[in-house]
Specification:
Number of helices: 13
Shape: globular
Largest sheet: 5 strands, mixed
Strand content: 15-25%
Number of strands: 12
Oligomer: single chain
CATH topology of the largest domain: D-Maltodextrin-Binding Protein, domain 2
Number of domains: 2
CATH superfamily of the largest domain: Periplasmic binding protein-like II
Length: about 280
């Protein structure tokens, strides 16, 4: 066989379609409820941006079933193929079961809470000025939320419920004086109850926390790609630009620098939380 004939044959393996291009990385995320449009879903938008910035070829796919947060975390922890990545507020327990990407998606703003209250209770709330005052009241939270444990650790009474409807019904029935919600989500919540609910106008609660992407235990490749992409978005300003585009209006309405802030401790915060990276956290100007 002449040299020019056997050289392509010898290299045929390297030139085969299977080896020319690796298949794209398939990433399954929790399918949202039907009322959520994935095209405008901030954590999914940011995930897609991060994977694009990482330089990997990928395909994002929703899970077969709609998944609430608690189920998506269980599925990720199980390490099966139902879902590969989810996002949630961090805690020591969650970081033991799951692999976190320690870049706060919402710049720590899930630890900045305003209070949804009954319209007729605003006068009562005007007397609340300190943590000691707050401890005289009972607040409503999700039964499996880290926030519930955080509030209780600060001596605040909590009446938990498992569903969003149940929490709203409890507040309306007076089975709790207030319902703390992140500054990024309370406006939509109040808008659905505008006939009887108000956002308390003077107070904010604050505790350090972070909402992270979590991946399956041992999936260091996906965790590394997402972290690399997020850091590139931070470095070139696209992270903050996108965040501001989505949440500028909510933060303007919140007016955090004009509120009395009640500081709470967070005993659930893992020691690895990157509090020293100032560029990761929102600070009221």
């Amino acid at each position: 066989m002449r040299r020019r004939d056997w050289l392509p044959a010898a290299l045929g393996l390297a030139a085969s379609p299977a080896l020319r291009a690796a298949p794209p990385l398939r990433v399954i995320y929790p399918r949202p409820p039907r009322e959520v449009d994935p095209r405008h879903w901030y954590p999914l938008q940011l995930l897609e941006m991060a994977l694009q910035a990482s330089g990997v070829s990928f395909e994002l796919q929703p899970s077969a079933d709609i998944m609430v947060q608690s189920r998506s975390l269980l599925e990720v922890a199980a390490g099966n193929e139902a879902v590969h990545i989810a996002w949630s507020m961090t805690s020591r327990e969650r970081e033991q079961r799951l692999l976190p990407v320690r870049i706060p998606l919402y710049r720590g703003l899930y630890g900045w809470r305003l209070l949804l209250v009954q319209r007729d209770s605003l006068e009562r709330w005007s007397q609340v000025r300190s943590l000691d005052d707050l401890r005289k009241l009972e607040l409503i939270q999700g039964h499996d939320w880290p926030d519930t444990e955080i509030l209780r650790a600060n001596g605040i009474k909590v009446n938990p419920a498992s569903t969003a409807d149940a929490r709203i019904n409890m507040l309306r029935a007076g089975r709790g004086a207030g319902y703390p919600r992140s500054v990024l989500e309370i406006w939509e919540e109040q808008g659905r109850q505008r006939d009887w609910a108000r956002i308390e106008p003077r107070l904010a609660l604050h505790y350090p926390t972070a909402m992270y992407y979590f991946v399956r235990p041992g999936d260091t490749r996906l965790a590394g790609l997402v972290e690399r992409g997020l850091n590139r978005l931070l470095a070139d300003g696209r992270f903050e630009q996108h965040f501001e585009q989505v949440y500028r209006g909510d933060l303007r309405q919140a007016g955090l620098r004009h509120r009395r802030v009640i500081q709470l401790s967070n005993p659930l915060l893992p020691p690895q939380t990157p509090l020293d990276r100032k560029e990761l956290w929102y600070r009221p100007a």
